[in-house]
Amino acid sequence: MGHNINAPQRLFVKMVASITLLVVVVMMLLSFILYLNFEKIHSRQVSEANLNVLSQISYSANYMYENAKNFAVSLYVDEKNVPLMYSETENYDLVSSQIKYLNTLVEQSPFVHSVYVYNNKLDKYYSTWKSPINDAKSFFDQDIVNVVSEMKFSPETKFAPILRKIPVSLAGQTESNPSMDVISFILYDLPATDNKVQGAIIININVDYLNQMIHSLSKKQISTISDIVILNQQGQIVTTTSPDYRLIDWTSQPYTNIRQDQSGYLLQKIHDEKFMLSYATSDILNWRFISIVPYKLIVKDINTMKRITFLVCAILLAVGLSLAFILSRYLYAPVEVLFGKMKSLEKVNRETVYSKKMDVLRNLLSNRENDIAYLQRMFSSYHIPLEPGKSHQLFILSIDRFNEFTRNYNNGDQKSLKFAIGNAASEIASRKFTNVFVDTEVDSIVILFEVGSDTYEYNRIQQYAIIRDIQQWTADNLKLSLSAAISYVALDLSDISRSYSEAQTILKYRMFFGWGCILTPDSLAHINADYFEPPVKLEVKLEEHLLYGRLEEAKEVLGEIHSYIGEYAYDTAMSYLFSFAYTLFKKNNELRPNGSSRKLDIDYYSFTKELGSLETMDQIFIKFTELFAMICEVNNQSKNSRKTVIINSIVKIMESNYTDKSLSHEGIANTLNLSRDYIGKLFRESYEMSIADYINEIRLNKAKELLEQDSRTVSDIMEAIGWENKNYFYKMFKLKFGVTTSEYRLHKVAEAAEKVDD
Fold it and tell me: Per the UniProt record, which residue ranges are transmembrane (predicted)?
């Protein structure tokens, strides 16, 4: 009897021992597999970390390029530079004044090393670096002379970055470094006749600026011992953190992937040592950004971990076998416990099937190379009620105010709510379409459905009705708002990922249409595809309102700006908003010359990070309005009597001494015993023009009065107002009053005659 009782116990012990041994063997096998793959996984992790830093470096390089372009365009369209580029005669005072002004702009720019202005008619170069006025033949930077003389117009080369060297010393001088690496950008004007450059603005950026940027961003790398190399489109080194890599031919066969792929990594021997090369590409500059890490540093800790893993597994194997032998003799589980475990396993299996089903559907949406036969097998295995060979369509349901949603609910509640939305949406959609819902594990749910034989218009009406019902159900039962985007039709499921990608792009335009919208490809028909021109006039008006603390007027102008950018593509609008925010922060986070701080309480990076997470223009409007309120408050606090006194003194000096031909910005600064840059900045902030322009304004207005009062010649009037250059006087008079001096005088004589007749 006792033998019969112990028989099932021995059987159970054998079963437990066998299972334990099997588990230990499987664990050892898995450990061995991990041992084989861990090195590859860790390499990928290191590469991804380095790619993240390279992406930031690429973004900063693109940002530098866009700012250089904007800087050049602002100089190109500045009418004060027109005489420098196109004048046939040279006015030294005017040239000297403008070069000083350009010097001021260069000093204020963190990345611009120098600016050249080229005049074909005079064959001259005006420079903020070294000698300011130069003939082309004697210009110290002959490299740029050759570039400009050989330049031919093409859309691909206009404002393309040019990697070159410029001398750091003039002829007859010696310095330790005879040249420096720069990146030059040329904005030029070509006539339709001889196709030669007539005038150009040349911006030089010191490569050291890129080195500083790389040093700053490289601190974030996981691999602390890493070098960075930047290559241009031709495979030339723009800059590198180690001179050793300048000796490598980056256009050779081993680096083919770097020249062709957008991003990735490869293992390559350099100087007989193995390295990991992670690389990324700039879409704008078409530069390659390469991170180089010695491979022995990557695998150093891995090898130690491998040895420890084998040791631990061996110990676990011995301990597991011992415990299984000892405990198996005393373990016996009742049948009820066995059934309980079976139920638990069944639940886990259901959850696993659901998880795998979602994985198949998510892979379907993200993979552009889906095989119909494979999809049919997977759909059959997981009971997905779609036929891969038929036409399909989808719509994305995105949870509005998603940041608020993640703050209010924990991860478990979020998953439950999204499951509820997907389940209800699928059931509502099943009234018309065979469908399945996909939890994308982000802020949206996708309803994937088969398209019937009905007309496009009828299907679209049905889709709108279904989405409205889903939105209403979600609002009533879950107190959540949904926005939706409807995709194009895919002829079969092998192309559904393209439809999903296009629907994601369409959904971005929720920013313009607001929460609860339903977007289709037709919703984007109004988008302006022309080149985006920033609303400069509105920006100037807005800056004036902010400078004088007029918050309500600034908000009205912001509304006009939002209306303007709402006609352009989402990426264009967001890019402009980030650039617009940067301009505001730059102009309002400077220190006043008198020492009083006018810095804002928030920084640009925090502001733009939050700006990028906003979903609608209304939210963006509120965010900018809050920033405007802070700027107005700071500007109102920074106003002081000293600034007013200085400005009034400058105006008084100009109005009292305008007849003096030597009256200049420099002379006024010396009279007041203040820095020329300081008074120039104060005056421009108050009058929105330079001191030299204001002097010209006074003289031109006085000339107009003299033309009305007596019959003196223009030469006598110019002498009376302190003006020297006759041609420039005629040009500026017509530019300001719209007529020549002779026409103005005749007009006044005619007016006087009419009054006598009356």
Answer: 12-36, 308-332
pLDDT at residue number 515: 92
Residue 437 region by backbone torsions, left for phi larger than 0, else alpha for psi between -120 and 50, else beta:
beta
Return the number of other C-beta atoms located less than 10 Å from residue 332's C-beta: 12
Cβ atoms of 250 and 231 closer than 8 Å: yes
Q: From the centroid of its chain, how far is CA 292?
A: 25
Percentage of residues of the chain with pLDDT beyond 70: 84
8 Å CB contact between 513 and 523? yes
Calpha distance 277→470 (Å, rounded)? 49
Q: DSSP state, 401?
A: S
* 566: nearest Cα among 558, 399, 246, 383: 558
Q: Facing residues of 4 across strands?
A: none
CB within 8 Å of 696: residues ≥ 6 apart: 732
Q: What is the pLDDT of residue 1?
A: 41
- At 32 the three-state DSSP class reads helix
pLDDT digits (tens, 9 = 90+) for 685-743: 888 899 999 999 999 999 888 888 877 888 888 888 889 888 888 889 888 888 888 88
d(CA 625, CA 559) in angstroms, rounded, equals: 10
563-605 pLDDT, tens digit each: 888 888 888 888 989 888 888 887 776 434 344 445 566 778 8
pLDDT exceeds 50 at position 244: yes
Q: Which of 170-184, 230-244, 384-398, 466-480 has the lowest mean pLDDT?
A: 170-184
- Tokens matching residue 670: 């010396």
Residue among 299, 289, 294 nearest 264 (CA)? 289
Quickly count: other Cβ atoms within 10 Å of residue 683's Cβ.
Answer: 22
What's the full length of the chain, in residues?
Answer: 758
Amino acid at 240: T
Average pLDDT taken over every residue of the chain: 81
CA distance 422 to 431: 15
Give the residue from 451, 557, 571 showing the smallest Cα distance to 511. Answer: 571
For 278, other C-beta atoms within 10 Å of its C-beta total 28
DSSP 523: G
Q: From the CB of residue 138, how many other CB atoms can be counted at a distance below 10 Å?
A: 12
Count, in order, helices (H) and strands (E) of the chain.
26, 16
Query: Cα(594)–Cα(591) distance, rounded to whole angstroms?
Result: 8
Pair 264, 277: CB distance under 8 Å: no
